[in-house]
Write a structure and sequence with these properties.
36% of the residues lie in helices and 21% in strands. The chain is built from ten helices and twelve strands. Helix 1 crosses helix 2, helix 6 runs parallel beside helix 7 and helix 6 packs parallel to helix 10.
Length: 267
């Protein structure tokens, strides 16, 4: 295991660039993972790990993962340098560089009774991470990101999801491509939208395969989604509150969809 003690080392420079620059991640099809929990989820999700970086005083705490990644490049990093490259204030003592996936619609192979979450134009990495964490907890079968506004492999998305971004099959495409895909696969499209024909989310059956579509907090969904929708859904709330956080709204709808799916499977 090579020892790195200078922040000018090429491997350290590369790791920092991949952490900080979306264009570097896209250019090299690589991204950074920080934290043992996140790294283990990436392995479960079938991600290929290129390089492993461990803070020098914690080598023996990671013997198990070191053995799992025996074919990856492995580096022991001085405490001073590791503190500089860590974007989590040094709370985690392990980092890795991994290869990205393509996330095409064609690679998404949903079950006949699948529940998918579709997020249109998400901008905040923290929101994306929270959505993945909830979708994984609610046992959704996958997520489609339509018209993305931020890099899927942003470190903040990975961190806020606690690594759940690695666990769910994900496709990324333009909205019109996603709509065509859902229709071709006979998905029931349910949109969260304030609309004259919207019904309370508790009154919908969520018959599978079902795609639950969420827009941004500020502008909602584009017209093409409103036109493609089979049913608009609303979450009733106090007259003193005009909106809910995106991840909270999605969580309410996802757990309702999951409950309905379980109910349908019993009959």
């Amino acid at each position: 295991m090579k020892y790195l003690s200078s922040n000018k080392n090429p491997e350290i420079k590369r790791l920092r660039l991949l952490s900080q620059k979306s264009r570097e991640r896209k250019k090299h099809s690589l991204f950074v993972i920080e934290g043992l929990r996140e790294l283990e989820k990436a392995l479960v999700g079938g991600y290929s790990i290129q390089s492993l970086f461990i803070e020098e005083e914690h080598k023996y705490a990671f013997e198990s993962i070191i053995q799992k990644l025996i074919n990856s490049e492995q580096f022991l990093v001085s405490s001073a340098v590791f503190e500089q490259i860590s974007f989590r204030s040094g709370s985690e003592k392990i980092m890795a560089i991994a290869q990205t996936k393509t996330h095409s619609l064609e690679s998404l192979k949903p079950k006949k009774n699948a529940l998918l979450l579709v997020i249109e134009a998400p901008e905040k990495p923290g929101n994306i991470g929270a959505l993945y964490r909830t979708a994984a907890a609610a046992q959704f079968d996958g997520i489609i990101i339509a018209n993305p506004k931020t890099d899927f492999y942003n470190p903040n998305s990975i961190r806020s999801s606690l690594g759940c971004v690695f666990l769910l099959p994900t496709a990324i495409a333009k909205s019109d491509e996603v709509i065509t895909y859902l229709n071709n696969n006979e998905f029931l499209i349910a949109t969260a939208a304030i609309h004259s024909e919207a019904i309370p989310y508790t009154q919908f059956e969520y018959k599978t395969p079902c795609a639950l579509v969420m827009g941004t907090e500020s502008t909602g969904l584009d017209n093409n989604w409103l036109e493609a929708s089979h049913q608009h859904l609303i979450i009733p709330m106090s007259k003193d509150v005009d909106s809910l956080n995106l991840s909270v709204s999605a969580g309410i709808l996802m757990y309702q969809a999951r409950a309905k799916k379980i109910e349908q499977q019993k009959h």
